[in-house]
Write a structure and sequence with these properties.
The chain is of the alpha/beta class and 257 residues long. It has a single domain, classed as 3-Layer(aba) Sandwich (Rossmann fold). The protein has seven helices and nine strands. It has a nine-stranded mixed β-sheet, sandwiched between helices. β2 and β3 form a beta hairpin. The chain is globular and about 40 Å long.
């Protein structure tokens, strides 16, 4: 059954909660640089993949440079806030940028072509992240969810169909899940789509995706928010919606590695 819910953010974001330290990691066969944060008593792992599509902080250099920025303390505020809120939900996070700044820039110069729109590449690198995560001793027993924005959302959904034993839930925030095409009908894990109420283009794309998804699904609309959730309280609302969805699915049962 299709479910669409509108949530009104509070007037200002609440900044409470401890900020856990991230550590640098090398992920997958290509050695993508990432940032891993594991709070005490973590009950699940959220692999956050992004493609430098404007929703996340700009990156430069090799794939995964954003992970180094996160560890170094120069990451975008929204990354820190997302990590903090997910930690409040007892979730570990692995942030990985799937593209280098050069790769993302090529696509930005000519929208509709280049690595950023090469879903096969994005899916392959997302799968690398999943394969890496499920082999780590420090993450043993943690069920894994995926969280992605922009074109990365389509890559996450396709990766979930390729690694059904590794992925327990998916969250797409300001994403383009519609780009997953026919694979949407093959997604078997609970999927949450989150968009800003004022992002009319994304809302249209996500409603299209909702019609194609046959798994447990929900569309959450943050009232008054735009694509980057920059309005007062919007990012906090988005993060808590994602955290509640993921925690409810990752904390139940044992990991299937």
């Amino acid at each position: 059954m299709t479910s669409e819910t509108w949530t009104m953010p509070p007037g200002r974001a609440a900044r409470g909660g401890r900020a856990w330290r991230a550590r640098r990691v090398r992920v997958g066969a290509e050695g993508l640089h990432g940032a891993l944060t594991v709070p005490p008593e973590a009950r699940g792992l959220v692999v956050c993949v992004h493609v430098g599509d404007g929703d996340d902080a700009p990156t430069h250099g090799r794939p995964g440079a954003a992970g180094e920025r996160l560890c170094a303390g120069h990451e975008a505020t929204r990354h820190r806030d997302l990590v903090r809120v997910l930690a409040q939900h007892h979730l570990a996070t692995l942030f990985v940028d799937l593209l280098s700044g050069d790769e993302a820039g090529e696509a930005g110069a000519a929208r509709g072509c280049g690595p950023r729109c090469d879903l096969a590449l994005l899916v392959a690198r997302t799968v690398q992240c999943l394969d890496w995560a499920v082999t780590r001793v420090e993450l043993a027993g943690l069920r894994v969810g995926l969280c992605a924005a922009g074109e990365g959302a389509a890559a996450a959904l396709r990766a979930a169909t390729q690694r059904p034993a590794h992925v327990a839930a998916v969250v797409a925030r300001s994403g383009r899940p519609d780009l997953a095409g026919d694979d949407l009908g093959r997604v078997a894990v609970p999927t949450l789509l989150i968009v800003g109420g004022n992002d009319t283009e994304a809302l249209r794309f996500n409603r299209q995706a909702m019609l194609a998804l046959v798994c447990e699904k929900r569309l959450e609309v943050v009232a008054g928010a735009t694509r980057r959730f920059e309005e007062p309280g919007a990012l906090e609302t988005m993060a808590h919606l994602a955290g509640a969805w993921l925690a409810g699915r990752l904390a139940s049962g044992l990991a299937r590695h």
